[in-house]
Amino acid sequence: MNQSECLNQINQIRKRMIEIGLHKGLNSTETISISKQLDQLLFNYQLLMLGKR
Asked: Rounded CA gap, 49 and 53, in Å?
């Protein structure tokens, strides 16, 4: 996955998490699950950026 693809995925998951959080609450199982997915994507993005230095 390249930088652009990673950022696009991060933005899509972030928007989805916000929508679900607004409708189901921040403590819902679905919101927390998507938050974990976003955390993993952000971690992968950081690793990608470190590799480009």
From this structure: 7
pTM here? 0.87
Indicate if the pLDDT at residue 53 is higher than 60: no
| 2 and 37 Cβ atoms separated by less than 8 Å | no
SS3 sequence of 22-42: HHHCCCCHHHHHHHHHHHHHH
Mean pLDDT of the chain: 94
Residues 6+ apart with CB under 8 A from 20: 28, 30, 31, 34
Name the residue ranges covered by the structural domains of the chain.
3-51
